[in-house]
């Protein structure tokens, strides 16, 4: 099929301005991109057409700087049903069920208006998942804030957390996990990455590709308002003198309406009336309609005056570019409109047939009968700008000699103070103040709660034995989100590798099989070769790790230009991961709840202090190479640990990450309210390197039979050493320190509430 | 025991309580849409948690005016037991089935956490499986759970034994430490005068299975089955 020639050139609306170079520039199109547009259109565009090109060719929608790199990530595995390119990734989790998930950023809006920015971030990712037919079962989020001393940080933490809570709690989806870091590099540009995981039957998954010439295009959900209009500077005033001037560019969310939309969509999806469905996210009606038509190889006529409008005096430009929330676009089977309308009216939502599919491969927009836009769809997609931007890899820094990093001191008091200081530092202090604001228990399926284990674990609804599940008990989904930005900054390839490996390790540490990841790439300005180099390096490392660990990328999101006044954020490729466990009864958490358990360290410890939290928090240095990740060792150690857990040889397990061994032990003790005492094994490196080094591929395991575990590990060629036992009121390291658990808890739990409650 | 769970636009814990009731009774409760003025005869009506009508205006205020609540009031007057949980508690107080009101939490934030509750009496169809003074652990998840009533009402509640549960410390001590929201006299749940209507902020329906929050809430459902079957 060839794209039909334009028959009716669009009319200009009254007061529509002429397209000037300034207007083009304000739409973010470079001069050569505008030339490209003119070539495709064969004439000067109308304002609405210009707006559409500007949105579709934006970095956000087109991935023009990142696409060449994203192609390098492995995306396939036998269990992958749908990789990147749809609203979310889909993997097979057995028993005729699929997990559908994705992580997405809402960084800039959250900095401008933290509550609404974060709330609509949650709303957007939820829609991405339920538009595919899944009922969301869990939310996670990865947050990076600036220096706590920055005057704006407190306000941002407070607003973002309340926004996530406000949206997720009202939707009735448990928020079960995530991470929160602080670093001055995020002072002017925080990161809010939200992830949703949903479950659907594998034979009831909905896609965006429109089919069937003549089929109705239907708009459902909220009315369209003027919120979030792209290029708000363009403003509607030039179109219409009466319309209100600029609105905030941040969208406003209504979780109540989204809850209704969720229920109405799932109710309609239970019938067979829907052919294709797509949520309206970034670039609203524009990107949703173009994606649906382009994927189906069809054209579309949309009567924009039929779009439900929140206010009077709106025009085609605003309707196509509004980012009003809680809206969906769908193609229905012909004749099913009334059935669908009844469902949406029951849920008190708008429902409007706004157009129909054609075979022209053109997007024709009409406004009260007049054609106001007429764009050939395939070239807009295929001829979209794509850049191979220059890139410079970050060289691997020299390894930091642990011998040149001072120990905390010589006395037990110095050692004790070091542990208390680390456990009450912003990155390691308890985040209970945050997650207690999230309903993490709704749905009654949460088996591992925040702070209860390395990954969150929720029961998969409808997978009981009765539903044909082969396992003995309740099937569970394990989920985590990970990235260590300081490692990525120091050496992006190592950091990318480490982020994937840590996510894999966290899923493993609860006993689940890691299946797939979603990536949320947060970076600075890609037009700077060193930033593009960070991106390239991180992708190389991630690709290597995903391949080595059979851990494909099935969905993701790229957020670039995270800079303020030329200062970029730490490169932050957040990895969201999902795994499955056949029987939740065989899972373990990280809480040390009883005395007398043997504590066994799995994995090699060289005492790697470069880029460690110890070095940064206690010595104010961010130096050296990050710890290397040996993927073969990672896999070997992890597979061993998972087998031991599922074989019921393990009582608790915690991976070793930020802060190393002693911090991991302290976390296990605090969460389970049981002390422990350990000693340094023979041949250990210097005590501070052994206790606080961040060597990768390691786990701390509590078990009833330490001897048997060490023996099993030795047989499997996995390094393992018995360190000590649980019990007592203190955390003690023989000859070095003994800290009462209560003292450590007070410090660990007091920091964040104290910070949030102190006057700005 | 036949039970009905009301569903308002924005309800979101109806599935949780349905799951708990099914676990205990072996029977799936029916779900009743808010617009339905009439529904089948049942032994128990549950008003579940959530954000009915988005909790706009005031929590529970709009739901209290719905057609289905007119019917619930009628049946409650005839003695049909009504259980209001969380947003359901807010709705039944707004509907006048229970005294008092639920205000914003004293710390102004949403709170989701396990809390300890002291069972005040075993003399009700809801609490007969517990001992008076027993401490149970169940979660709360709300932003407006701060129970308040005027001094006269408080006195009547105390005198008539209408207080069902109080927040407490793990050892049963009733003081500020165990109170998650600032409720007067640590009140977590109250009865009507005949003890046929119970409203409570905590979620016993999320504490009915060992691996998913423990089983301390199960007694409430088992007690009702025993009393109503």
UniProtKB/TrEMBL annotation, chain B:
Subunit composition and interactions: Part of the FGAM synthase complex composed of 1 PurL, 1 PurQ and 2 PurS subunits.
Role: Part of the phosphoribosylformylglycinamidine synthase complex involved in the purines biosynthetic pathway. Catalyzes the ATP-dependent conversion of formylglycinamide ribonucleotide (FGAR) and glutamine to yield formylglycinamidine ribonucleotide (FGAM) and glutamate. The FGAM synthase complex is composed of three subunits. PurQ produces an ammonia molecule by converting glutamine to glutamate. PurL transfers the ammonia molecule to FGAR to form FGAM in an ATP-dependent manner.
Entry superkingdom: Bacteria
Organism: Reyranella aquatilis
Record-linked SUPFAM superfamilies: Class I glutamine amidotransferase-like
Organism placement in taxonomy: Bacteria, Pseudomonadati, Pseudomonadota, Alphaproteobacteria, Hyphomicrobiales
Catalytic activity: N(2)-formyl-N(1)-(5-phospho-beta-D-ribosyl)glycinamide + L-glutamine + ATP + H2O = 2-formamido-N(1)-(5-O-phospho-beta-D-ribosyl)acetamidine + L-glutamate + ADP + phosphate + H(+); L-glutamine + H2O = L-glutamate + NH4(+)
UniProt EC number: 6.3.5.3, 3.5.1.2
Listed pathway(s): Purine metabolism; IMP biosynthesis via de novo pathway; 5-amino-1-(5-phospho-D-ribosyl)imidazole from N(2)-formyl-N(1)-(5-phospho-D-ribosyl)glycinamide: step 1/2
Protein name as annotated: Phosphoribosylformylglycinamidine synthase subunit PurQ
PANTHER family: PHOSPHORIBOSYLFORMYLGLYCINAMIDINE SYNTHASE SUBUNIT PURQ (PTHR47552)
Location(s) in or outside the cell: Cytoplasm
Catalytic residues in the record: 86, 203, 205
Keyword annotations of the record: ATP-binding, Cytoplasm, Glutamine amidotransferase, Hydrolase, Ligase, Nucleotide-binding, Purine biosynthesis
InterPro entries: Class_I_gatase-like (IPR029062), PRibForGlyAmidine_synth_PurQ (IPR010075)
Cleavable signal peptide: none
